[in-house]
Amino acid sequence: MNIRNFSIIAHIDHGKSTLADRMLEITNTIEKRKMMDQVLDSMELERERGITIKMQPVRMKWHLNNEEYVMNLIDTPGHIDFSYEVSRALKAVEGSILLVDATQGVQAQTLTTLNMARESNLVIIPVVSKTDSPLARTAEVKEEIAKLLNIDVSTILEVSGKTGEGVSELLNEVIKKIPGPRGEFGEENYKLEINEKSFRALVFDFKYSNHSGVTVFVRVFNGQAKRNTPLTFKVSGKSFTATEVGIFSPSELATETLSAGEIGYITTGIKESDIASVGDTISHVNDNQPPLHGYFRPSPVVWASIYPEGADDFAMLKLALGKLRLSDSSFTFDEETSGTLGRGFRCGFLGMLHLEIIVERLKREFTLQLIVTTPSVNYEVTFNNGKKEMIFSPSLFPEDHMIAKVMEPWVRVRIITPGQYIGAIMQQLYEHEAVIGDSESFGDNRTSLTLEMPLRELMRNFFNELKSMTSGYASISYEAMPMKEADVVKMEVLVADEPVPAFCKIVARRRMQEEADQTVEKLHGAIERTMFNFKIQAKATGRILASRSVSGMKKDVTDYLYGGDITRKMKLREKQKKGKKRMKERGKVNITQDVFLKMMKSE
């Protein structure tokens, strides 16, 4: 079969999207006059930030030795928060290009994605990119890759996504080294049945449209499907008739058939958002075989509650989250109610960038005004009576005197950094409660550190601090570990004696005073004044740790008086004093959306 299915994997900003652009240009998949940077990054946010958020498949054609080959490429994200996208893409292909930036060398996330490719038994083609850069260290980086993969330096290719140099040779190498499509169980040269009744395909992604319903992105393992073929979802049990089948070129292009070994899409016409799921198998309605081996379900590591600013927008927020879930199956959401903020959703994410992207998409794509609580992790709490409970929201965390033991998630972290920054990093690791493990020399004047630390500490601005102290040269990747015992307390923030659940957080006992001072000071600078005096307080372990007063706005109620007895002014001032007292007793401080955003951004 003259089909090659492959992906590009790399650390963030190592040139995946630029290389994909040159491939599309050289294979004439897109005309030169229609070419633009980041062709496969169709989302506005991706172009704005210069990162890939969603994997994107595309079909190209290439000739070698007078034979035409179909090249199915899946461009994948590089940031660790979107590693679930990468893992799903790797299940749909037989090989992968491992791209390493010649100016930066092997990074921590390079190792993570490489391990994922190896676990999927993919053929790895090592490539050094950005070789045209004046800062390129091509020879040194090739040595690093050769040592990492235990291969000969001469087998590593050099390309420049900017100039197109070496891209044709890379496409030829993909055809030579990566095998044709494998069967359901990974077998090569398997016997194909090209008929509708034997159709079986794995769903690796999908999207939703109000007009055409759910469109599933599939890798076909057997048989073929046409328009009007009766199909079924194996896991959910929902049957449908295909309204359209096609390929990605790079936009969706309808075709007559979608056959074994190909990557394409099927439009289902189903308007219910909870029917399709990533990892499900689509087969002919008469197929009685078990479903294909799907994907593991990712476990959220960061939790935050999202509420609509107006109670009337709750239904719209629920609909928006349901639709977003179709294009990003790695986040979760469950309905919850807060006495202060009303009805909202407790959402789970794979990292802080993942949370930021989802919130931004909700605002842009659905024009929603949102209140987002401080991100946190989940804790397993053992009460004094022996009862165990998993706590996902800081506002639901029990008081200190009720707790016997708390367990929290930990992560194993790998940092690759130039040697001169080790001293500063060690100090940072101590402040973030890290337990340092192995360290080894890694390539040209670089050190690889392996350590373990609480996930809450990784979230506490660790990325930004690391990048800042190493001038951006350090890279980081992490993986989940079993839970360990934690010494943490619940810190509440009170505004005018009313607790605000959105500002509630779980902090280390040893840092609670520092956190209380910082939070109160931050909120004092962000919150608007009202007509009456009120206090901002931070409370933990049953006592007030920090407090700041916000003075009320003043108005001279005697301004219009131009004379007369002083008692007239005294009466008006006394009346104003009583009015402000009543306002303080009955009134609430209105915390605007901007204040919530400032508090979250500073975290």
Explain the overall architecture.
The chain has 603 residues and is of the alpha+beta class. The strands form six sheets. The protein has an eight-stranded antiparallel beta sheet. Strands 2-3-1-4-5-6 form a six-stranded mixed beta sheet, with helices on both faces.
Tell me about the largest β-sheet.
8 strands, antiparallel
Number of strands: 31
Give the proportion of residues in helices: 25-40%
Question: What spatial order of strands do you see in the largest sheet?
Answer: 11-10-16-7-8-15-12-13
Overall shape: it is globular
Total of domains: 5
At the fold tier of CATH, the topology name of the largest domain is Rossmann fold
End-to-end Cα distance, whole Å, is 52 Å
How large is the radius of gyration?
Answer: 28 Å
CATH class of the largest domain: Alpha Beta
Mean pLDDT: 84
Residues in β-strands, percent: 25-35%
User: Helices and strands: which structural class?
Assistant: alpha+beta
Structure, briefly:
The chain is built from 14 helices and 31 strands.
Key descriptive features of the protein:
Rossmann fold; six-stranded mixed sheet; 26% helix; Alpha-Beta Plaits; Elongation Factor Tu (Ef-tu), domain 3; eight-stranded antiparallel sheet; alpha+beta; 14 helices
